[in-house]
Amino acid sequence: MWSLIGGAAAVVALNAAPSNIAPLACTFVEVGTLVALAAGIRLNPPPHRLNWMIVLGAVSLLTAAKLVQRAHNLLDLGPGLPTLVIDWMYLVVYLLLALALGILPLHGRHRTKLTSMTEVGILACTIVVLTWSGVIDPVLDAFELDAVVAVTASLLPLLGLLMVTTTARRVLTAGTRTPSGLLTIVALVTLLAGDTIAMAARMDNGATAGVKPSMYGWLVATVLLATAALHPSAALDPLPAERPSRGVMARGYVLLILVGPIATALSLLRELHRGYEINALDVAVPLAATTVTAVLLVFRLTAYARVAEQRATALDTRTEALEVALTEQVTLRKVLSHQATHDPLTDLPNRTLFGECVDEALVSGEPGTLLLFDLDGFKDVNDRYGHEVGDELLVAISERVQRLVPAPHTLARLGGDEFAVLLRQSGHQESVRCAQAILAALRRPFQVGPYQLYTAASVGLRALDTDTGTARVLSDTDLALYAAKAAGRDQLVCYDSQLRTRHLAQARMVDRLRDALEHDQLSVHYQPVVDFENDRWVTVEALARWETDDCSVSPDQFIPVAEDSGLIVALGTWVLRQACRDAAPWHRDHGTRLAVNVSVHQLREADFAGVVRRALTDSGLPAAALSLEITESVLVGAGTQRTRAIAHLNELRAAGVVVAIDDFGTGFSSLAYLRTLPIDAIKIDRAFVPCEQTEDPQQVALVRAIVELARGLGLGTVVEGVETPAQASVLKRLGCDLGQGFHYGRPAPADVISATLAPQNQPA
Question: Which stretch of DSSP H or E encloses residue 370?
C-alpha cells in the first residue's frame, strides 16, 4: 500500500516538475521502482520465481535503455542510434514480458508449461490476425512510414495484446483473485495504453511525438509491478478455478481457428472496396498465423486426447483396484463374521451362533434335544500341566465329540470347558444314547503331547419345547448339568420341573440367608468336646444356627446353599468373630478351647490368615486356644488355590493355631496328605463309630487303625457322633483322645455354655 501511494505521489510530482528537472526525477523514480521490484521478489518469494526474474530483467533492460537515451539527449549528440536502440529495446522488453507470462503454468492438475505455451500460442496467433487485419495493415496502407516505425508499430501492439491477454487469462483461471495478480494486469494494460498512444502520435507527428504518454505509462506500470511484487499475495499460488467442461473448451478452440480466416476475408474485402492494391503481405501474415494456429490446435487436441486416454487408463486401474478392494472387503467381512460366531480355539460355533441355531430349531418346531456338558476337574489339568496343555486337550475333546454328533447336529463351545450339543430330529431315547456315548468317549484317555490325560464330564439334557424360549431352554439344561455335578459327576441328568422348583427354592433361600446376615438373625451354638480320660470339657465346637420367628432352618439346608452362593465366606467370618468373642472368657476362666469349621471358599480368600488374626486380636482369645477344622477337599489337587490354602494354614500354625481335618475317612483320604500337610489332629467321622447294640468288628478295626496311624504320625484324634455310654467305652478302650456327640451334650447357646462352665455346675 505504501509503495502504491509513494509511486503515485512521485508520478504526480514528476508531472508538475519543470522540463529541465523531469528527466532526472524520472530516473530516480525508475531506479526506485526497480529496487522495490527486486526487494518484493526477495521478501515474497513467488511460486514461479523464474518468471518474475524475467520481468525484473525486462524492466532493468528498459530502464537502462531510457538512461542511455537521456544521457544522449543531455550530451546533445543529435538523432540517430539512441532512438533506434530504444525502439528495439521496447520490442525486446515486450517480448521478454510476453515470454515471462506465457511460460507460467495455468491452474489445473493436468496443465504443464508446454500445454500452457501451446494455448498461449493459439491465442497469440489469433491476436496477430486480428491486430494485423484491424490495426496494422490499415495504418501501413494509410501512412508511409520508415522501416523502424513500421516494425515497431506492427510488433508493439501484437506483443502488448499478447502480454495483457496472457496475464488476464492466467488470473481468470484462478479460483481466487489475488491483489498481486490484479495489480499486474493493471500495470501491463497501463504500459500498453501508454505505448499505443505514443506510437499513434509518432505515426501522425514524427519520431519525437508521444514521448510523454509513453513515459507516464511506463512509470505507472513499473510502480504497479513493484507494488504487486511487494504485496504478500505475490508468494501465493492461487487456487484453481472450476475447470470448464471439455465440450466448452473444444468449441472455444474451434471459434479461435475460425476467427483468423473470417478476419482476413473481411480485411481483404475492405481493401478491395477502398481501392487498395492487395499485396503478398496482406495474405501472407494472416495465412501464416492461421497455419500456426491450426498446428498448435492439433497439438493441443492431441494433448487432450492423451490426457483423456491417461484418465481412462487411470479409471480402469481404479476400477480394477476398486473391484479388488470390494472382493477383499467381502472376504474380510466373511472372516470377521466367522470370528464373531466361532470359538477361536476349537473353531466350533460359539455361544452366539449356538443360540441362533437353537432359535431356528424352536421356530421350525422340529423335535430335538439340547445337551450341555463340562469337564470334571479340568482346572487341575491347567494347574498341573499349564494352559497350553489344557487348550490342546479341549481341541482333542472337540474333535472326538464332533465325530459322535455329525451334521445336521451342532456341537458348540460356550466357553472354558463347557460345551453344548443341539441334536436335531432326535427323540428322548436316541438323545440319551448319544449323551451316554459322549460320556463314554470322554472317559477314554487323551494323548496330549507327552501326557496321557484322563477326564470325565457331567451332562445335562433337555428336550426342545416350542413354547419355551431359547434362554429358558438353556437355563433348564444348565440346571440339569449342575444336578449331575451335585449327584457325583461323570453322569447324565435329564431335566424335569422339580429341578426348576428346587432351583427357585434355593434362590429364595439365598435371598433369605443374605437378609439374615444383614439383619443379625443368625446365632452360634456350641457343642462340647470331652477328654475320654476324665470326661472333662476341653473344647467347644462353634456351629451356626438360623432360627426365625416362624421356624428353625436346619444347617443341612442353609450351609450347602451358602457354599454354592459364596455367602459361606461372609457367614464363616461372622461365626469366627462371634465364637472368638464368646470363647475368650471361657478360655480365660476355665481353659476351654474353641473349634471353628472353615470352608474351602474361605481358605481361597487372599486375606484369610489376616481375618483369623484380627478375630483373635479383637476378642483377646489366644491363638493356641483356637482349632480350625477343615475338610480334606481343601488339600486335594494342585494349583494356586491349594498353595494359597497351605500357606494360610502354615502361617496360622506358626502363630499357635491348631489345624484339624474334619470328617476324616469320608473324603479323599490319603496317607501322603497326613504325612506332609500342616495338620495337628483328625476328626473321625461318625460313620466309623460302632453301633450301640453290637460292636461291628470291621468298624472297630477301622477305628483302631486310624487311631494307631494318627498316634504314629503324632496327630491327635477326635471322634464325632458319640451318643451312648457304650460307644464312649469302646472308643476309650481303642485309644481315642477326645469325643463329641449327644452323649456329652447337644449344641447350646453361649449363655447356656457359660452357665454350664460355672464352677458349681462344671461337668465331672
Answer: strand 368-376
Q: What is the DSSP string of 618-654?
A: HHT--GGGEEEEE-GGGGSS-SHHHHHHHHHHHHHHH
**Long-range contacts of 280-288, Cβ-Cβ distance < 8 Å, separation of 24 or more:** 281/137, 282/137, 285/128, 285/129, 285/132, 285/137, 286/129, 286/132, 286/133, 286/260, 286/261
Q: Which of 719, 646, 635 is nearest to 684 (CA)?
A: 719
For the segment 286-335, what is each residue's pLDDT rounded down to a tens digit?
Answer: 777 777 777 777 777 777 677 777 777 877 788 888 888 888 888 888 88
- Using DSSP bridges, classify how beta strands 658-664 and 681-684 pair: parallel, antiparallel or unpaired: parallel
**Over 69-130, what HEC string results?**
HHHHHHCCCCCCHHHHHHHHHHHHHHHHHHHHHHCCCCCCCCCCHHHHHHHHHHHHHHHHHH
Structural contact between residues 628 and 616, judged by C-beta atoms closer than 8 angstroms: no
Residue closest to 399 by CA, chosen among 413, 378, 380: 413
Are the C-beta atoms of 36 and 3 separated by less than 8 Å? yes
Q: Is the peptide bond before 213 cis (omega within 30 degrees of 0)?
A: no
| CA–CA separation, 724 and 738 (whole Å) | 15
Q: How far apart are CA 739 and CA 751, in angstroms?
A: 23
Cα-trace Rg, the chain: 56
Retrieve residue 176's grid coordinates: 481466487
User: Which secondary structure element, helix H or strand E, spans residue 194, and what is its range?
Assistant: helix 179-205
pLDDT grade for 109, boundaries at 50, 70 and 90: very low
Residue type (1 letter), 228: A
pLDDT at residue 282 above 90? no
- The 10s digit of each residue's pLDDT in 686-735 is 888 877 655 678 888 888 888 898 888 889 999 998 988 888 888 888 88
DSSP 724: S
Predicted TM-score (pTM) of the model is 0.53
What's the rounded Cα separation, in Å, for the pair 164 and 101? 9
Question: How many residues are recorded in the chain?
Answer: 764
Q: How far apart are CA 643 and CA 640, in angstroms?
A: 5
213 DSSP β-pair partners? none
SS3 of 40-68? HHHHCCCCCHHHHHHHHHHHHHHHHHHHH
Q: Which residue in the block uniquely carries the three cell numbers 495489480?
A: 183
219-233, 386-400, 614-628, 643-657: which has the minimum mean pLDDT? 219-233
Q: What is the pLDDT of residues 598-618, one digit of tens each?
A: 998 898 899 999 999 999 999
286 and 267 in contact (C-beta within 8 Å)?
A: yes
* Backbone phi and psi for residue 80, each to the nearest 5 degrees, phi listed first: 145, -120
The mean pLDDT value for 668-672 works out to 58
d(CA 243, CA 307): 14
* Cβ-contact 456, 423 below 8 angstroms: no
For the chain, the first-to-last Cα distance in angstroms comes to 122
Cα–Cα distance, 671 to 657 (Å, whole number)? 23
Q: What is the dihedral of CA 578, 582, 585, 587, to 10 degrees?
A: -90
Q: What share of the chain is helix, strand, coil (3-state, %, to 5)?
A: 65, 10, 25
* C-alpha to C-alpha distance for 6 and 2, rounded to whole angstroms: 6
